[in-house]
Amino acid sequence: MTQIRASITGIQGYVPDYILTNAELETMVATNDEWIVSRTGIKERRILKGEGLGSSHMGAEAVKGLLAKTNTSPEEIDLLICATTTPDFIFPCTANLICDMVGIRNIGSFDIQAACSGFVYALTLGSQFIETGKYKKIVVVGTDKMSAIVDYTDRKTCILFGDGAGAVLLEPDAEGYGIIDSIIRSDGVGYPYLHQKAGGSRYPPTHETVENRWHHVYQDGAQVFKFAVTNMADVSAEIMERNNLASEDVAWLVPHQANRRIIEATANRMGVSMDKVMMNIQKYGNTTAATIPLCLWDYEAQLKKGDNLILSAFGGGFTWGSVYLKWAIGA
Ligand code: UT7
User: Fold this and answer.
1) CB of 222 closer than 6 A to ligand 1?
2) Which of 284, 280, 320 lies closest to 296, judged by CA?
3) 188 and 43 both lie in a single domain
4) pTM (predicted TM-score)
5) Rounded to whole angstroms, how far apart are CA atoms 205 and 321?
6) Residue limits of the Beta-ketoacyl-[acyl-carrier-protein] synthase III N-terminal domain (predicted)?
């Protein structure tokens, strides 16, 4: 029997127009372009401006573009999954809002919260519904308005993050393309090192939570860096090994864009040279759930049908994971 796999048949990104440069950050906190570029690789990031616009706005823009590009009508979509750490509201979920904004009605839609690994988690989950034959067209979105929770008085974190969104269409494939394997992992040991403390049920908003800046991202960067380097490299090597992939079999590594040094360490561990690594951290920074689809969108013209891609991510939780897929778009 032919194995049905979920393949990506369309990719679309969206980034807001406003560019926050390192030079502008220099006017806000005690930092400098040289430090930011040498420690992270980031030169600029996009910021969503405008009253009342949240992650759903960017996600909906990406989905609208995706439907137009793939010639798909909203009525054809069977399921929409949104990965986000910056939902518009605690409830309803951002996936519900995106569906409404793009005219997708009466289907299941829900959010996944796995911080920077959200897209890898959502893709893994979506692929199951295709493989079982339950659904034929699934949209997976990664969208984050990190500027909503970044503390622009904290130089250790404010230089890292940006806003953006990306969306893919998943459809069944019986010709050997699509998602072949995936690994998702988590370890709650990560909570103290990377979190947004208040706003949920443990610490609902009070004057004190606001004064303590608990509604912003807190990160112990050095600790997170250590875990990220090890786990992202290990999980990428593990998915290669268990699928008998040598480094020359990998056409592209598509890593989460948190820090250029973490990306280089992962590529090094896999034996993959940097010319096979997708990187756009310099222009978007860390857009959390959007980094991987934004990379695929940026590099789409260079991808060939049948290319072996390894997607890898690490983030708050801690969460991490990897996806091995064969690119299905092209001649
Ligand atoms: O995507 C989710 C997962 N997140 C990550 O993977 C992020 C992982 N962590 C990192 O990428 C890095 O730890 C950072 C980029 C956040 C920080 O780089 P680092 O090399 O670990 O720097 P550090 O935090 O150890 O700080 C080194 C120095 C400190 O000064 P002292 O104490 O040595 O005098 C900091 O105060 O750099 C200082 N510093 C800065 N200086 C200029 C920290 N931030 C800045 C800044 N500009 N923006």
Assistant:
1) yes
2) 280
3) no
4) 0.97
5) 32
6) 110-188
